[in-house]
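Posting this for the archive.
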Amino acid sequence: MRQADGAKVPRRSSWRVGLDRGGIELRHLLRNPKEMFGHLSNVVVAVVVAAVVGGDVSGTSTPMSHLVLAGFAAYLLFQIGLVNLPQILVTEREEGVLLRMRATPGGIPAYLVAKCLLVVAMAIGTLALLLAATALLADGPLPKDPAGWLTLLWVATLGLLAVVPLGAAIGAVLPNPREALALIMLPVMALLFTSGAVSPISSLPAPVQQVVSLFPLKWMAQGLRSALLPDSARAAEPAGSWELPMVALVLTASAVIGFLLAIPLLRRAARRESGSRLTARHRKAAQSGAAPA
């Protein structure tokens, strides 16, 4: 790139552009009361659940409410990356954002980096609020030592990096915002109830355990349980241990696979966009009453 006088202007990397864009989107989010209320409502649900769940995890002295809260924390991270993000991407595709990114050098990778930053910041903030609120109001679990806090940090970060690219890949192929939620929620809810997030996974049939072990939610929940629950709770795990090396391996593999899928799928979605398609979609939405004419 050159200025009018012929001097070269250094081109910023996709990472730098993406981080700048993500920072702007994060500031917009913090100024949007409706968006913030949606995340606060999840925390309220967690506090209510912690208050009503009683008893101990079978074979341990760990309160069942603590296991459910650890699983709920993992589910919130999973939901933000694999439910909220695809809806955002589909909506922005409908609004022509991907079409603009296609015309920008390095636009698609920068766009994905921005979304990763936005979702990671949003999820970490929600997780911190969840743990603080449940600890203060419902005697919820917290890490007992620095090693526990470190485990909480790396599991949450790696878990988000595992699901955000997958969410972007899903968002690139979903048809429209109105159908996106319906297509995503059913499999996500099935994973919630079969991944050990709300009940000990060892109580599930072995074939179910094997299937859900292919998905990151199971390992995110297991990693967060290792950070939030006492060591005695390991007795409720299928392997009798937290398997943290396996947690790190599966989440890292999911992150790599997700990025390898997301970038070409987003580029494909951008290539299929055109001004005429965008105008036709807007006209159809206006005619159906879904958007102002």
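The first helix runs from residue 14 to 30. Residues 102 and 271 are 7 Å apart (CA to CA).
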